[in-house]
Each structure stands twice: as structure tokens, then as C-alpha cells.
Amino acid sequence: MVYLPFLVMVVALLLGVPIAFSLATAGIVGIYLLGGDLNVILRILGTTPFGVTAEYVLTTIPMFILMAYFSASGGLARDLFMAGANWLSRVKGGLAIATVFACGIFGAMSGASLAAAAVMSSIAMPEMRRHGYSDELAAGAIGIGATLDILIPPSVGMVIYGISTQTSIGKLLIAGVVPGIIVAIFLTAAILVWVRVRPAHAPETYVVSARERWASLGRIWSSLLLIVLVVVLLYTGVATPTEVGALGAFLAGAIGFLFGRLTWAGALDAVRETVKTSALIFMILIGATVFGYYMAMSKIPQQVVAVVTEMNLNRWVVMIGIVVTYFVVSMFMDELPLLLLTLQLTFPLITSLGFDPVWFGVMSMLMVAMGLVFPPVGMIAFVVSSSGNVSLMKVYTGTSILMIALVLTTALLMVFPQLALWLPNTMK
Amino acid sequence: MQRWLDGCERVLTLVAALATFAMMLLTTADAVGRYLFNRPILAAYELTTNYLMVAVIFLALPYAYRQGANIRVTFLVDRLGRIPRLAVNHAVQVVSILYCAALVFATFQQTRHVLTTKTTFVTLDLPLWPAHLVVAVGLFLTTLMMLIDLGEVRKGRSSLFTDVGGGG
Fold first, then answer.
1. Is A210 exposed, middle or buried (0-12, 13-18, 19+ CB in 10 A)?
2. Tens digits of per-residue pLDDT, A264-278?
3. Fewest Cβ atoms nearer than 10 Å: which of A12, A67, A153, A172?
4. Chain A stretch 203-262, residues whose beta carbon is closer than 8 A to a beta carbon of chain B
5. Which pTM does this prediction carry?
6. pLDDT (0 to 100) of residue A120
7. Could you give the CA distance from residue B16 to residue B148 in angstroms, rounded to a whole number?
8. Alpha-carbon distance A18 to A287, whole Å?
9. What does pLDDT average to over chain A?
10. Buried b (16+ CB within 10 A) or exposed e, A147-156
11. CB contacts < 8 Å between A and B, how many?
12. Is the CB of A50 less than 8 angstroms away from the CB of B131?
């Protein structure tokens, strides 16, 4: 009986009930079955929407999203890509590497991987095609490059993880920096190997004058400065993540206006997109909180922990099981609902096995990133396919090959957790 | 009715957008005031969480719904024939309406409770009930839109099934 709500949730999800409502419905059924009368359910439904929303730390979410949309609507992504392309034009596969660079930096100003994938597809894809790059390489670089947004701060996924698990958001955001850089390095190496093995996939190199190269850097220095400022403020703890979010959004808007990238109409569109995306995320958060009441009342997480402990499994076997499960589920689901759905069960388990919560936060983001680019669904792959006008099969081919960067980083973090932890551990 | 709802949606979205701007400016000014001049803004914390955040999220809810921003898992439903899919979509629309209607009822009750207990901010003598009312109103309009959309499911025009946000 206690597991019936899970069945309700799975059936609701499969029938296409919005994820926010599936979670809540399953929670309501569960609370009712546990003997909660209608008054208890109504009290939970009456207090949860306000309680979840009127939370200071959660203002980080709309502020990070606003920062992303201010940056995106200001043409920053194009300037980043062109700067990278100009400096790497003489390297074989340079445009694909420039895409990774642009995705990484753009990710540091946004945190929304799907937005980055859409923006970069429309910018980098035509340019790479013009220089004879294969669709597989181009789409693969964009798809995997876009996943950097999930790791590199400010990452909305990390904020959601932090809120769901009561883990320091500041530490989580900083913990993504080194793994993000490692993914970018592996990705660059994978692209270089690809074009060496299959030179026809990136046939052209070209020369750009030194003047043009420096000029392109001139267009992005202010944004690079903003990124440094965001990371430094987070790292030093001078400002809270909430304040960094608001300040980041303010400065991204100011830079956009100052450099003539952002218009009033663009700013209004950015805000409209921000409130829409935020409302969507908070409806899922409300649904997850209602389901969370059921989980707390049912004591299922404690039971799962007890069962796994009794099985006396090696903790790494459990971790690999979680990795594989996340990877499979994330093929069918977007990053935020996946985290909200699974963390209530996986988090108590991994902490009981002695894994570091911050390290698991980074691991979760990597697992989610893999699912987002891998067949049969992979949301980022869909976005690259539609925005870049590439067949889905070619996108999957590219992302499946370049996904090696994510796999290697995950393996590396399992062997050397310190790669994710040393930077947050040095924070005050 | 539809035109009235569209008008409400536009006004509420505009207020939500203004609240977003206000939240950004207030938090930034508070942080700068505190760190540089040791003078934080009184009640910035409470104004942001109790009024602005609530306005950003719940006043934008009808707009988010109209834009088809619901994340759904659709890979199974997409494979169904037209008739079974319509039946499933009707059921999904009804379940969604029921959940949201329960939220509307519960949040209006909560608003009444906060109003009668005269709950205020901690730092200022500002009432908390308007914030709760915003929650209930945003949910109410969204539920109304869903209810009207029930008749549109058959024509494939319900906003619940236009996934711009995607979800697989």
C-alpha cells in the first residue's frame, strides 16, 4: 500500500500529466492512504505554495534565469563564439573548440543548458557548415558544450540540488568549476582526436588578422569580467548566492545596455521569459514538496537506507547503481524534475553511505548532463536538432561520441573526489 | 470571458515583470548598502520574499500556462492513436484541473486565516494577507484557463498540451 503513490506517479507521468501535477497527485494519494484526512491535505495544499515561494534563498532562481536571458538576448553568445573562432581559426577543428569555449563562458552567465543549446545552434552551426564541418561534429560540440552550463556557476540545477538537500549552495556552485573545466578540456581533446582520425569532418582552417582577433576580444572583456566577479563573490563568500544572482542580473543587463546589445524590448522579453520559466520551476517545486510530505510521513527513505545497509553492499556498487539509474531516467526527463523526483530517495542513501553531499551534487549534474544528450530522448539533442536544422540521428551520433568527455570526467571524479571538493573546501 | 482572461493575464504578467525588476534592484541595493556603506535597507529581506517573490511566481502563472510551459513526459502518449490520445488528454486535463482547484480552495482558506489572525511582517507593520491573496488569485486564474481549455482538448488547442518547454 505504501508504494501505491509511486505507481500513481509513474502512471500519471506516462500518461502525460505535467510533472508538477504528477508529483503532487501522488503525494496527495500517499498522504490520504497514510491516514491523513482531507483537512490535513488541504492544510498542506494551503500552506505549501506560499511556503515554498516566500523563501529568500530561492530568489536565486529567477535572478540566475534573468541573468541568463539578459546575456542571451544581448548577442553575447555570438560575440563569444566569434572571439573563440578568430583565435582558433588556424587550428583544425578550431570552430568546434570555439563552440565549446563559447558554451562554457555563456554557461557561466546563464545556467540554462537548453537555452544555451538553442542559442549556440543558431550561431555556431551555420558558421561551422560554411567552413565544411560535418553536421555530426558540429552538433556534437554544441550539444555537449551546452551541458557545461549545468556544471559551471551559476547553475540553476545546483541551486535546486542545494535547496532539496539543504547543502550549501555557495559550495555547490563553486564545486562545479573544476569539473566544468575538466569536461571542457576532455571535450577539446576529443574534438582534436576526432578531426585527426576523420580529417574530412573539419576540412578548413583560415587566417584571421591579429587586429581582428584582438578586436573580437574587446567585445567580450566586460562579460568575462562579470563572470570573474560572480565566481569571486561566490568563492570569497563576500555576498550570498542570492545577492550574487541579483547583482549578476543587474550587471548583465547594465553591460547589455552599455554595449548596445540589449534594447528595452529585448529586456522586457528577457523578463517575460524569466517569469515564465520561474513559474514553471516553482510549480514543480510545490509538487515535489507535497510529495516530500508523503515521503517524510511514510519514512520510505529511512526504510530504503536500512534495506541497502542490511544488504552489506560495497558503497561504490550502490553509487554505480545510482549513476546508471540517473542516466537512464534522465534520457526521458529534464534536469530539474529529475533532481526533485529522485533526490528525496537517493540523497539520504548516499549520505548514509558516507559520500560527500557536495561531491554527489556535482556527480548528479554530470549524470543529468549525459542523459540530456543521449538517445532515445535527450532534451538538448532535440533542441540542437530543431534549432540547428540537423537530423536527430546526426546529433545523436555527434553527442554519443563526444559524450566520452562527460564519462571520463565522471570516472575521474569517482576516483578523485577531491577534484570537485578542494575548491569549495578552501572557502571560508 | 476569454477576452477578460487575456486582459487579466497581460496585466498580471506585467506586474510580475515589474516585481522581477524590483527584486533585482532591491536585493542589489541592499547588498551594496550593507557591504559598502554598512547600511542595509530596512525590511528588504521580507519585502523580497513575502511580496515580490510571490508576485513574480504566481502572477506569471496564467502566462506560463498559456505559453504551454508545462513539462510533460510525452514519449508514450505520442505513440497512441488519435482516439486513445484524446481520451488520455481529457483525463489529464481533468486531473490537472482537480489538483489546481484544490490548491485554489486551500490557498483562499489560508488567505482568510492569515487575514483573520492579522499576521504581519516581523520588521514592519505590513499585513501578510495580500501576499497569500496573490497566490490564490494566480492559481484561480490558471485554473479558470484550464477549465475553459477543457473544451479545446478535442481540437488539440489546450495550452496544457503545447509543450514549448518540452520534456521528452
1. exposed
2. 888 998 899 889 989
3. A12
4. 238-239, 242-243, 245-247, 249-250, 253
5. 0.84
6. 83
7. 23
8. 10
9. 87
10. bbbbbbbbbb
11. 199
12. yes
